Amino acid sequence: EVQLLESGGGLVQPGASLRLSCAASGFTFSSYAMTWVRQAPGKGLEWVSAISTGGDDIYYADSVKGRFTISRDNSKNTLYLQMNTLRGEDTAVYFCAKVLRGWDMAFDYWGQGALVTVSS
Amino acid sequence: EIVLTQSPATLSLSPGERATLSCRASQSVSSYLAWYQQKPGQAPRLLIYDASNRATGIPARFSGSGSGTDFTLTISSLEPEDFAVYYCQQRSSWPPITFGQGTRLEIK
């Protein structure tokens, strides 16, 4: 059974940093691209970032470029999102998701989400 | 950036009825469109990918159609568990990957 489990969310002040982790199991993690998608309270879905199987290809939404860094450790079956210089508008539930196949960016499995709240 | 516009914003129907949800793209996305279902407090669930392919484990009452700029998600006969928010998502031209704003399917 595919499982994705996010951790690392919490309440931080504007300008602070936070690192989210996503522990994967039930599939060959190193064979699939991965992505982060966020959802502000009461709002729709916003794509944040994606990373290829080996971590060589990385893409970001303009809203987080230069502040967030996606990475993965295939030896630990874990995806990360390092978030720096956090702003109020980054407040959201952050989901990690598995890409269906290759770079075919449909997301077939999702974690339960990690809540990040940026507030003073 | 490709903008996806979903309509209607809210759809009120009764169990057993047919639901038709629309997603229109600001430019052609070929068939590179997916549909997701999200229930309160849960993660989204992939229903349809590449416009018309049902994801693993998705019931046959869910179907997708369309290409280019106009797409439809149809639920042939609504079950009580189908009342949720539905999002479309394009992967034709990215980054960024974009989602529609969602259609809320509510019980009438």
What tags apply to this protein structure?
heterodimer; A: mainly beta; seven-stranded mixed β-sheet; globular; B: 108 residues; 11 strands
Characterize the structure shown:
The complex is a heterodimer of chains A (120) and B (108). Chain A contains no helices and 11 strands. In chain A, strands 2, 4, 5, 6, 9, 10 and 11 form a 7-stranded mixed sheet that branches. Chain A has a 4-stranded antiparallel sheet with strand order 1-3-8-7, with no helix packed on it. With 120 residues, chain A is mainly beta. Chain B is mainly beta and 108 residues long. Chain B has no helices and 11 strands. In chain B, strands 2, 4, 5, 6, 9, 10 and 11 form a 7-stranded mixed sheet that branches. In chain B, strands 1-3-8-7 form a 4-stranded antiparallel sheet, with no helix packed on it. The radius of gyration of chain B is 13 Å and the shape is globular. Chains A and B meet through strand 5, strand 9 and strand 10 of A and strand 4, strand 5 and strand 10 of B.
**How helical, in percent, are the residues of chain A?**
under 10%
> Sheet with the most strands of chain B?
7 strands, mixed
Biggest interface, chains and residue tallies? A-B, 23 and 24 residues
Strand proportion of chain A: over 45%
Overall pLDDT confidence of chain B: 97
Q: Element order, helices and strands of chain A? A: EEEEEEEEEEE
Number of strands of chain B: 11
Structural class from helices and strands of chain B? Answer: mainly beta
Task: Record the SSE blueprint.
The complex is a heterodimer of chains A (120) and B (108).
Chain A: E1 3-7, E2 10-12, E3 18-25, E4 34-39, E5 45-51, E6 58-60, E7 68-73, E8 78-83, E9 92-101, E10 104-110, E11 114-118
Parallel strand pairs in A: 2-11
Antiparallel strand pairs in A: 1-3, 3-8, 4-5, 4-9, 5-6, 7-8, 9-10, 9-11
Chain B: E1 4-7, E2 10-13, E3 19-25, E4 33-38, E5 45-49, E6 53-54, E7 62-67, E8 70-75, E9 85-90, E10 98-99, E11 103-107
Parallel strand pairs in B: 2-11
Antiparallel strand pairs in B: 1-3, 3-8, 4-5, 4-9, 5-6, 7-8, 9-10, 9-11
